[in-house]
Amino acid sequence: MGNLNKEQIAKLAEHLETAELEAFEVTKITDEFPEMTYQDAFDIQWEIRRRKEARGTKIVGMKMGLTSWAKMAQMGVEQPCYGFLADYFSVPEGGDIKHDGLIHPKIEAELAFVTKHELTGPGCHIGDVLRATDFVMPAVEVIDSRYKDFKFDLKSVIADNSSSSRFITGGRMADVAELDLKNLGVVMEVNGQVVQTGAGAAVLGHPAASVAMLANMLGERGESIPAGSFIMIGAITAAVQMNKGDSFVVRYQGLGSLSGRFV
Ligand code: 0L1
Ligand code: MG
């Protein structure tokens, strides 16, 4: 059930998208609209997506967010969320990320699944995801909540496309059968110092569980994950704030590394 009308949804989508495109902070939208529901929040996110597509932007993937206990505790929320990835979010491996075009970026070590069969919910489970996966590859997400000081609640975050902003993917593609996804280790280094370490199981107990949850959440809106989708599973480690001039490398057990620099 939604409590906001079409005009309110459209206005809030414009407000949050403008903050994203022009890189300015806003206060969380539930302050002004405390009656907002989860359906309203997703309606705003989908309206931002529609606005971008109407301007010719391509949607190149989906992301799950807040999928680890570390992230949920860090941000004070109790369940995961999803967002979409637009074509201009993609940064080449080893590339420069313009800090001035963002508000207060943080990086997260993630993995991406690329599917070869459609996944539909409800009832999608890890086994379905593993069977439908073409390959898995390293991914780093740059999140940049439009909310001042990353202070928000889950509904406000969902409306803000789950803080999506940039992502890098690359390294080695691998078949799920050759990986121990639960124990797959990642090491994040910033300016040559190890700042975070983690293993795949940090994400909902198994990385594939995150993709299954996405299929089930999309199922609630009559949507699915089509074959050929690129899906980021959420952070394996806590997010790390990046300043202008910072460089990072994330090393993935058996899958190579991803690097980048904020300029
Ligand atoms: O990708 C994520 O896990 C982040 C989702 C939104 C919450 C945040 O901005 O930290
Ligand atoms: Mg993320």
TrEMBL record:
Keyword Lyase: yes
Record-given protein name: Fumarylacetoacetate hydrolase family protein
Residue span(s) of domain Fumarylacetoacetase-like C-terminal: 104-262
SUPFAM superfamilies: FAH (SSF56529)
Source organism per UniProt: Zobellella aerophila
GO molecular function: hydrolase activity
Source domain of life: Bacteria
Signal peptide limits: none
Keyword vocabulary terms for this entry: Hydrolase, Lyase
UniProt keyword ATP-binding present: no
PANTHER family: 2-KETO-4-PENTENOATE HYDRATASE, ACID HYDRATASE
Record-linked InterPro entries: 4-oxalocrotonate_decarboxylase (IPR017630), Fumarylacetoacetase-like_C (IPR011234), Fumarylacetoacetase_C_sf (IPR036663), Hydratase-Decarb/MhpD_sf (IPR050772)
